[in-house]
Specification:
globular, Chemotaxis protein chec, alpha+beta
C-alpha cells in the first residue's frame, strides 16, 4: 500500500486526488440538477490540501453562518466527509426544491426547509461517495448524514477534534454551481485517515 505523508505528497498523487475531487463534485452537481429539475452548471472546482485551521477563512471566516452536512465513513475508506454551504445559498437551493416557496434569507429555517436541506445534503453526499467508490473500486459506507447550522468555525471543530490526532489536513473542494445570477458556492471536505489516503492511491495504481 502507498505510504502517504501529506506534507510530502508528490504532484502525481495530488493530481489523482484533484481528479477524484473533480469527478465527485461533478457527480454531485448532476444529482443536484436532477433533484431540483434545474439546469445547474458547475465551474471547475478549486482543490487544495489544507490544515483544519485554514479551512474556516476560505469559507467566509470562522464566524460565517453555514449549513453543514457531516458523515463518517467506514469500510475500505475511513474518515469523515462534509458538505458546507453558506446559509443564504442554502436558502436559494431550498427555494428551488420547494418551487419558490420558503422563508426570507435572514429568517430561521422552517421545519419543511430543514427537511428539504437534509434531503439535498443526502443526495449530494451520496452522489459524491458513490463516484469515489466506483473510481477506486472500494466499498464505502457512511453514517446517516448529520446536519448542523452554525458558525463555520464551530462546525469545522468537529473533524479537527475527531481527526486532529490522525491528520491535520483535509482535502477541500470548492465549487461554484448554479445559473447566471444565482451562483452558489459549495465546499466538499474529505478527511480520510492517512491509511485510507494510501488505500485510495494504491487502488488507482500509485
Amino acid at each position: 500500500m502507498a505510504e502517504v505523508k501529506l506534507d510530502e505528497m508528490n504532484h502525481m498523487q495530488f493530481d489523482v486526488l484533484r481528479e477524484i475531487g473533480n469527478i465527485g463534485a461533478g457527480n454531485a452537481t448532476t444529482a443536484l440538477s436532477q433533484m431540483l429539475s434545474a439546469k445547474i452548471d458547475m465551474k471547475v472546482p478549486k482543490i487544495d490540501l489544507l490544515e483544519f485551521k485554514e479551512l474556516g477563512e476560505l469559507i467566509g471566516g470562522a464566524e460565517n453562518i453555514v449549513v453543514g452536512i457531516l458523515l463518517t465513513l467506514q469500510d475500505d475508506i475511513e474518515g469523515m466527509m462534509m458538505f458546507l454551504v453558506e446559509k443564504k445559498a442554502a436558502k436559494s437551493m431550498v427555494k428551488l426544491l420547494m418551487g419558490g416557496f420558503g422563508s426570507g434569507d435572514d429568517e430561521e429555517f422552517s421545519e419543511m426547509e430543514l427537511s428539504a436541506m437534509q434531503e439535498i445534503g443526502n443526495i449530494i453526499a451520496g452522489a459524491y461517495l458513490s463516484s469515489l467508490s466506483a473510481l477506486t473500486n472500494m466499498k464505502i459506507t457512511s453514517s446517516v448524514p448529520y446536519m448542523a447550522i452554525d458558525m463555520a468555525g464551530a462546525i469545522l471543530s468537529v473533524p479537527a477534534i475527531e481527526f486532529g490526532k490522525i491528520s491535520d489536513k483535509a482535502l477541500l473542494i470548492e465549487t461554484e454551481f448554479g445559473d447566471v445570477g444565482n451562483e452558489v458556492n459549495g465546499y466538499f471536505i474529505l478527511i480520510p485517515t492517512l491509511e485510507s489516503y494510501g488505500q485510495i492511491l494504491t487502488s488507482l495504481g500509485l
